[in-house]
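Ticket #194: bound-state structure for coenzyme A.
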Amino acid sequence: MDPGTAPRELRTARLLLRGWRADDAAAFAALNADPEVMRHIATGPLDRRASEDLRARLQHEWERAGHGLWALERRDDGALLGFCGLAVPGFARGLAAGTVEVGWRLRRDAWGHGYATEASRAALRVAWADLGRDHVVSLVHPDNARSLAVCERLGMRVVGRTTHVRTGWPLLVLRADRPRPEAPPRRAAAGDPP
Ligand SMILES: CC(C)(COP(=O)(O)OP(=O)(O)OC[C@H]1O[C@@H](n2cnc3c(N)ncnc32)[C@H](O)[C@@H]1OP(=O)(O)O)[C@@H](O)C(=O)NCCC(=O)NCCS
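RESOLUTION: The complex was predicted; output attached.
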C-alpha cells in the first residue's frame, strides 16, 4: 500500500494539532530550553538557534514524508503547548526502514492534564486511517516514567530495546498495533436456541 499523507490540521476536544508558524519561535525555544522537559532527550536543552533549527527540520519532515510532528495548541487560549505526532525516528539504531514513531513533548505547566494522551490518540488514528500503517512505535528512555505512562495509556507494549545512534543511550521500543475491525454480529444458525 502506498503511504498516504496526514492532515495538516486536526482538532480534539481541547487541542488543535497544526502546522508550524514563525511566531511559535519564542514559545518553542522556551520549551526546548527547559532542562526538566529535556531530561530524557539525547540533545539535552537547546539554545534559541538549535530550537529554530529543530523547528525548520520538523517543517521539512512534513514536506518530505507527508507526516510529522504537529505544533500542539490549546484551543481555549491558543497557547503553544509543545508537539505531538508521527515522526521518522532517525536517531535509533536498527529500526526497519519506514518505521514511524508517535512522539510528544509538552511544556512543563501542561503536564498532568492528559494533553499528550489526547493528542497522540488522534495521531494514532491518523496513522491507521490516513497513513495505512499496521503499527507505530515509540522510543523511550527507560527512566522516562511519564512518557512510558503515556505509552501505557495508549495500549502500547514493549517489544524490544535499542540505543541512540549518537549517545548510545538505551531506548525501549514500544509498539501500538492497528486495532482490528470489530467482528460482525454472528448470524443465527439452525439449531441455535430461539
Ligand atoms: C511525556 C509527557 C508528554 C507526558 O505528559 P503527561 O502530562 O504526563 O501525560 P498525559 O498528557 O497523558 O497526562 C496524564 C496525566 O494527566 C492527568 N489528567 C488530568 N486531566 C486529565 C484528562 N482530562 N484526561 C486525561 N488525563 C488527565 C492524568 O491523571 C495523568 O496524571 P498523572 O501523571 O499525575 O498520573 C511530558 O512529561 C513531557 O513532555 N516530557 C518531556 C519530553 C519527553 O520526555 N518526551 C518524550 C520523549 S520519549
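RESOLUTION NOTES: The domain at 10-177 is CATH 3.40.630.30 (Aminopeptidase).
TICKET STATUS: resolved
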